[in-house]
Amino acid sequence: MVRESRRSPRGSSSRRVLSLLLFLVLGFLPAEASGQQGATVLGRVTEASGAPVQDALIELVPVEGGPVRRTALTAADGSYRLADVAPGAYRLQVQRIGFDPLTIEVRLSPGEVRRLDLTLTAAAVLIDSLVVEGARGARRERSRFESEAGITARVVTSTEMKRLPGLAEADVLRAIEVLPGVVSTSDFSSAFNVRGGSADQNLILLDGFPVFNPFHLGGLFSVFNADVLGGAELLAGGFGAEHGGRVSSVLNVETKDFTGTEFGGAAGVSLLASRFSLHGGLPSSSVRGGWFVSARRSYFDQVMPDDVGLPYHLTDLQGGLTLGVPGGGQVRLVAYTGDDVLDMSKRESKRKDDSDADIRIKWSWGNDVLGLRWDQPWGEWVSTARVGVSRFTEDFGMVDFDGPNYASRLRQTFGRIDMGRDFSGVSVRLGGEASRFEAHNLFEGGGSTFWDEGDSGTMASAFAQFGWRPTESWILEPSLRLDAWAADDTSLVYLSPRLAAKRFVGADREAAVKLAVGRYTQFLHSLKDETVPFSNDMWVLAGTNLSAVVSDQVQLGVEKYWGERWSASAEAYLRRFRGLVTFNAADDIDDPDDDYLTGTGRSYGLDLLVRKSAGSWTGWTTVSFLKAERTFADPLAVGWDGEPPTVTYAPGFDRRVDIDLVLQFAGPRETELGLRWNFGTGLPYTRPIAQNIWWEYDPATGQYKIPPPTGDEEPDAPPMFVVLGPRNGVRYPAYHRIDVSVRKTFERKWGTYTPYLQVLNVYNRKNPLFYFYQYDKSPATMSGLSMFPVLPTIGLEVTF
Amino acid sequence: MKGMWGWSRIAAGLLAVFGLAACELDEVTIPAGEDLLIVESILDAGKEEQFVLLHHTLNGRRVGGEEGARVRVLREDGLEVLFTEAPANACTMVDAAYSEGKDSVDVRVTCYVSPAGAGHWVVPGERYELRVETVDGKRLQGWTTVPGAFEPIGLSAEAGRPMGEVGRCVLPPATPLALQWSVSAGARAYMTHMRVEGLREVLEGSGIPNIPEVLTLYGVSVTESDTSIVVPAQVGILERQKYDNDLMLAIRDGFPEGVRVRITLGAMDRNYVNAVRGDSFHPSGPVRVSSVSGDGAGVFGSLVPYAFDIEVRGGGGAGCLVEG
Q1: Strand partners, A797
Q2: Contact A55, A71 (CB under 8 A)
Q3: Fewest C-beta in 10 Å: which of A232, A422, B87, B261?
Q4: What is the 3-state secondary structure (H, E, C) of A327-373?
Q5: Collapsing DSSP states into helix, strand and coil, what is residue B77?
Q6: What is the pLDDT of residue A538?
Q7: Quick check: A763 contacting B, CB < 8 Å?
Q8: In the predicted model, is pLDDT for residue A212 greater than 80?
C-alpha cells in the first residue's frame, strides 16, 4: 500500500550563500555537471499493523536505463530519504526479509519532494536470509553515504563475519580488525584501537546498549555469538552528537531481527566451544514480533582431567524479544549474561611425586546487559526510548588464604530518549540521556588494602542534531551535545559542537568530499596496561583525582562508488586528546591525589579503502597510516619531587602502516572461501638496555642478600631487575600473516549443515608477542614468544 | 588507591599461562647491555653500621663491583659520614646455589661501610643525602627522609625492646599473633619481615617437598595509618606462588611447634617502597623505580625497624603480647 504527497520545489538565497561558504572551506571541487534540480523521495515503511520496518532496502531503478539507480535502507523508525534524485521514471522497489517485495512506478519532476509511505505485507515464503545479508552491509554503507555527511561507517555483515577466517569460530570483534583505521596489537586480544585512540575509548553497543569488556579469556575472542548477529557497524569517526561517552569510535553490534520468521535454530561446534540458538516469530496473528535465545559454553574443563587440564569455562546466554505495539510502535528487549570462570578452588592437594602442590584460586569475570527499547511514531515525530543496565564484574581470590583478593566492578544504569522528524529539507533529532555509573576496584590481602576505590558519577546529556540539504549537492549536519558530569565533589560541563559537511561531486552523485570536525568527551577510563595483551579492564571514573578525556578531531575525506560493485574512500584525520590517564607507578601511597598520571595525546593518519561488494568475489583492501603519541609524566624518572618530567612516546598500538586484504568467494554448490592477509609495521616496545642483580635488604641480619632459590632444582639465575631504555623507543619486526577458510553448506530437508576448516597463519610467520632480553648470558641473548603459529581448526554449523 | 603492588607478578603469571599457546622464538645473540653503576643502600635506623653497595649491570655472567669510590652520607644538620670499603661478605650474602651449576653468575659487589662506633646516626625523621663519586668521575646522588619512630602496641616487655635491640617471647603452636603498632610519621608502608627456621625438621615426614632451610616471607601494610597485621596468616601475600601450597597452609593459622621465628616490623620510606613495589610490567623482568640520579641507578631508602624473636612451643614462657 502506498500513501503519497507532493510538494513544489523552492529556492533560497541563504542556502546558496552557505553553500558558497562551505564550498570555499572544502575548496577545489569541480562544478556540478547537471544544472537540473533533483527530486526528493522520502517516507516511512511500515507493516500492516503500523509498526516501522527497519533495514528495508529501498531501490529506485531507472526505467529503461537513464538516470542512476539509488538505494537506501530504512532507519529504526522505518523512515527513508532519497534526495537529489535525477528527474525521470523509476521503479521503486522495497525488500525486507519476512515481507513480500513491493514495487511501484514513480515519475519524478525536477525539484519535486515526493512522500511515499509504504506498507509491506508479511511474506508467505521467507527469502533466504543469507542472500539479503550479503549485500546488506554495502547497502547500508551506501545509504549512509547518500544520506549523511561526515560519519565514517563501515559495516561487516554476519555473512562476511563467517567467511572471515577466525579463531575457531566467527567473531565480530576479529572482523572489525580488518576495517580501515583499526589496529589490533596481538593475536591474543580482540581489543582494538581506532585511529590512535585507546581501546577503552571505543563505545561497544549491543543493540544500542553498552557492553564494557566484551571479551573472553582475557581478550582472546568476543562474547558475541555470530549465529544471532545481523552484523556490526563501526563508526570510526565523525559521528554526530547523538553519540557520547567515548571519544574514539562507536561499534554497533546488532542481532538479527526475527520478526515474522518461522521457528528455527542454529548450532555450532568448534574446538573452542559449542553453541546453539533458537528463534522465531510470535505465534499470535494479532501481535507481530520475534524472539531468539542463544547459549554458548566451552568445554576445556569437561574434556580434560582436572589435574591435567585447565579448569576454565566460559558461558554466554543471550536473548531478544521484539513486539509490535499499538500505534505502529515496537518494543525490543535485549538481554545478555556471560562469564569466564577459572575455578581451581576444588582441586585437592594431589601430589604424584615431589612436585609442588597447586595454589587453589577462583577467578571469574563477565558482563550482564539488560535493556528495553521502544520505538514509537507520534505523528510526524518518531521517538526512541531506551532504558537499561550494563555491568562488568571481576573477582579473583585464593580460597585458602587471606588474599590476595581482587575485585572490579562497573555498572551503568541509564535511560535515553530521542525524537526525530523531517521538516522540509531539514531533519531534526533531539534527545537526552542520563546515566549513573558506579565503579569499584578492590585489591587486598594480608590484612592490608592496596586499592579500594569506589566511585559513582552521574552523566546527564542532551543533544540536537540537524541534517540540512541547502542544495542538491550539499549535506550539512551541525550538531551540539551538552554533557554534564557529577562525581564526588566534582562537576564538569562540556559543550561539544560538531559539524559535518559533504559535497557530492558529479551528476551521478557517486562521489563526495566530506569534512567533519567536533569535540568528544569521556568520563570513564580503563587503567588496563595496553602493553599486556591479555588482561581485563579496570574502570575508574572521572572525579576529584581523575580528569575527563576531551578530544578534538577533524577528518577530511573523499568517497566514491562505481555502481553497486565497487567503492573506495580516503580519509585523513587529526585527533588531539586531553585528560588521558594511567597509573602512577611511583605514587605516594598516602596521597590520593597522585594515584594517577594525566597526560595528553595526538594522532593523525590516513585511511584508504577499496571495496567490492557484489559478485561471486567480494572483499576489500585497506591501507591505514597512523602516527600516535602520548605524553605523560614519567614515574620511572629518578627521584622527582613536585613537578615530574614528562616523556612523549608512541603508544603500544602505534602501527604506522596497516594493510588488510580480504577476499571472499561464494562458489558453486554452496562453497564459500575466505582469505585475509594482514601486514602491519612493527609496534613499539620498551627495550631493556641492561639487567642488574636484585639485592634484597634483610632487616633481620642487616645484610644484603640474593634470595635463596625455592625448590631443589638448580636455579635459572639470580633474580634481576631490568633497566629500561627510552619508552617504546624500538619496534618489533613487521607483523604479517595469511588466514584462509573453507566452508561448504549441505542442504537437507530439516535444514543445513556447514562444516568448515580455517587455517590461521598459513605460512607460520613467527610474529613476536614479546621479547625476553637476557644480559646475564655471554653473549647476551634475545629470545621471545611468538603469536599464533600455523593453527588449523575445524568446526560445524547447523541451521534448521 | 593505595598503590598497585604486585601487578607485574599477576601479569607475569598470565604471560606464563598464555605463553602455552604461543611458540618460542629462536634465541639470537645481541650486543652486551649497557654498563651502568648501580647503588643499593637502605639506611636502617635500628643499626649502627650502615652499608652502601656498589655494583654494575650484568656483563655476561659477571657482575662487577666499583672499588675506590668516595661514598658519603650527609645529614641535614651537617653531619657527614664517610663510608669505607669493606670485604663484600661483610654486607652481602649469596646463596651457594647461585655460584654453582651451569647458570651461575660471578657476583662481585663492592661494599662500603660506615665507621664503627659512630652510634645510631640514622635517626627517624631526619633527611639524608647520598653522594657517590667513582674514580673515573661518575657521580650518583639521592635523598631519603627516614620515617618517624614508632612502637609496637601490646607487646610484652620481653618482646618489646627498644629499637635496635631484639626482644624475645614464646608463642604457643598454631596460634596467630595479632600485631599492632603506632603510626610512623612519613612512612609510605610497613613491612613485616618474617624469618622462619626449623620448618624442614618440624615438617619432616609431611610429604611436603622443597622446604627451605630458612623461609623468609614479607607482609605489607600500606599507607601510614595501616598499622596492624596478623602473623603468620597475613604474611607472604605476594610470595605464595613461590612455595608449595601445602607448606603455606602449614603455617597459615600459626607456627608448628619447634620453629624459631624472627619478626621485623619496618616503617619504609618512599624510595624503599618504590624499589620493591614492582608495578611496572615488562616481560624481561621486574622494573625498579630508581631513587638515585646521576650516572647510574639504584635505591637510596630508609627503614625504621622493630625486631623480636619468637620461640614456638607449648608450656610456660614470656608471652608475646601483654595479657588482658
Answers
A1: A268, A754
A2: no
A3: B87
A4: CCEEEEEEEEEEEEEEECCCCCCCCCCCCCCCCCEEEEEEEEEEEEE
A5: coil
A6: 87
A7: no
A8: yes
Q: Span A561-586, mean pLDDT? A: 91
CB-CB under 8 Å, A782 with B28: yes
Q: What DSSP string runs through A532-553?
A: SSS----EEE-SSS-PPEEEEE
pLDDT digits (tens, 9 = 90+) for A733-783: 999 999 999 999 999 999 999 999 999 999 999 999 989 999 988 899 999
Phi, psi (rounded to 5 degrees) for A300: -55, -45
Residues of A in contact with B63 (CB under 8 A): 692-693
Mean pLDDT of chain A: 84
C-alpha cell at A49: 499493523
Residue A44 neighbours by CB distance under 10 Å: 25
pLDDT band at B171 (very low <50, low <70, confident <90, very high): very high
| The three cell numbers locating residue A657 | 602502516
Q: Is A169 helix (H, G, I), strand (E, B) or coil?
A: coil
Q: A635 CB near a chain B CB, below 8 Å?
A: yes
A604-643: pLDDT as tens digits: 999 999 999 888 899 999 999 999 999 998 877 755 555 6
Report chain B residues whose CB lies below 8 A from the CB of A450.
1-6, 222
Question: Cis ω on the peptide bond leading into residue A404 (within 30° of 0)?
Answer: yes
Q: CA separation (Å) from A463 to A203, A579, A593?
A: 17, 23, 33
Q: What is the distance in angstroms between the CA of the first residue and the CA of the last residue of chain A?
A: 33
Q: Which comes out higher in pLDDT, residue A497 or A283?
A: A497
Of B191, B245, B281, the CB nearest to A529: B281
CA-nearest of B252, B270, B262 to B310 is B262
CB neighbourhood size of A286 (10 A): 7
All three cell numbers of B75 = 645529614
Average pLDDT over residues A330-353: 80
> Parallel, antiparallel, or unpaired: how do β-strands A202-206 and A249-255 relate?
parallel
Looking at residue B270, its amino acid is R
Which chain A residue shows the shortest CA-CA distance from B96?
A708
CB A686 within 8 A of CB B282: yes
Q: Position A414: which residue type?
A: F
Q: Which of B58, B99, B130, B306 to probe the A interface (max A CBs under 10 A)?
A: B58
Residues 364-423 of chain A with CB under 8 A from chain B are 398, 400-404
Whether A718 contacts A694, CB under 8 Å: yes
Cβ atoms of A504 and A511 within 8 Å: the answer is: yes
CA R_g for chain A: 28
Per-residue cell: A211: 557492553
- Nearest CB among B92, B234, B273 relative to A589 is that of B273
pLDDT at A227: 86
| Rounded Cα distance, B92 and B107, in Å | 11
User: CA–CA separation, A528 vs A740, rounded Å?
Assistant: 32
- Rounded CA separation B192/B229 (Å): 8
Give residues with Cβ within 8 angstroms of A462, minimum separation 6: A430, A431, A432, A481, A482
Task: Using CB atoms within 10 Å of the CB of residue A725, give its burial: 0 to 12 exposed, 13 to 18 middle, 19+ buried.
Answer: middle
- Tell me the three cell numbers of residue B314: 607449648
Residue B99's alpha-carbon distances to A30, A432, A702, A798, in angstroms, are: 79, 69, 22, 62
Rounded CA-CA distance A787/A773 in Å is 18
Q: What is the band of A688 on the pLDDT scale with cuts at 50, 70, 90?
A: very high
Q: Tell me the nearest-neighbour CA distance from A364 into chain B, angstroms.
A: 14
Name every chain A residue with its beta carbon within 8 A of the beta carbon of B252: 400-401
The answer to whether A58 and A80 are in contact (CB under 8 A) is yes
pLDDT digits (tens, 9 = 90+) for A439-483: 999 998 888 888 888 999 999 999 999 998 888 788 999 999 999
A644 grid coordinates: 615530574
**Lowest-confidence range among A111-125, A237-251, A359-373, B167-181?**
A111-125
